[in-house]
Amino acid sequence: PTDMADVPGMGFPQNFVVSAGPNTGEDIAIFDRENRFFTNPEGNPVIFDARGTGVRYIQVRANRLWRRGQIANFALAELQAYSDGENVALGASVEASDSFIDQEFPRWAPEFLVDGYSSQYKLAEFPEYLDLLEKRRGATLKRLQLLEARNHKTTEVLTATAAMSTAVFIVLLAIAITALIRQRRVRFAETTRLRTQIARDLHDDIGSNLGSIALTSQIAGGAPDLDEQARQDFDEIHAVAERTAESMRDIVWLIDTGNRTFEDLITKMRDAANRLLFEIDFQFTHDLSYFSEQIVSLRFRRHCFFGFKEMLNNIRKHAGATEVGIEVKIDDGQFQICVEDNGKGFNPEERRPGGRGISNIGDRAERLGGTCEIVSQPDRGTVVSFQVPLKSSREH
Fold this sequence. Notes:
By secondary structure, the protein is α+β, with helices and mostly antiparallel strands. Helix content is 42%, strand content 17%.
């Protein structure tokens, strides 16, 4: 709802069980993730196939809640139950073991779980929703084709104009050059806008496809007659689709031509920490002083952000840490990132075979004229200090 921060997937449980039954106490298991982490679907629907089971009630029991800092909640936007193409859960009675009832926040009442709306908008019926996705994909493809044709035609016109301008008098040549320079500026601005729009359109199209892959693999992986190897394969497909979608959102954010500030970069880094360290307690502090609103170049954002993600990925995959401290600050003309964990540590002189994560972080710092220092000992955790000169944030 609009009375809270707009965080996709806010309140979706990390571990949960879906069951149903014809009468109270006669539970039939539909989906069980009580002991395995469930990837947050963000803005996508999550679908379970009950395979024709006749029931009168549906129960969702959360075993581990969505958490951000000290706040933990269980907040589903809508629960639907389709039978013969009809949502039979619409307007049904809702019971909850605990609920947030406050006159100041009326939209959190349990009955809104089956009111036909998401947190803010009226939901289309599911068959219609799938049809709209297909129409959107076709329209996006057609638009890309038209934009490519227009760009090609513009190039042909400019080339012909440049060829003709060489045959005119000096004055006309000067006028033509002036017009060409201005046209090139317009074309550059248009190309930049077009690049960003294409990236976003591709994100929407491919994002929808990835969402479909994740959804299909999730449903297939929940089939009761699957062997364990097939279930693991479907889980891996689901995880790869989710990670690819996250990487695409990061890339689209980076190439967006809108002015980005240090504050925007910090917000993106904090979101990355929430995604990658979801099972680890972490503290994120920052001090940007009066630089918060300073514009930051694409090159600077790219190396700092992906270097930071590499640090978090190393912790998640290898450190075995339970606590992580993250500090970002601007001090003495340097943009500094310090990440400290209490994991198992390692000997920096003995790198893992085939491992490129640590050297990648150092390479990104060097490209901005900075340094990366790693201090670690076995069983004593690791501290990574990444710092680059502030002036590099303005170099494109």
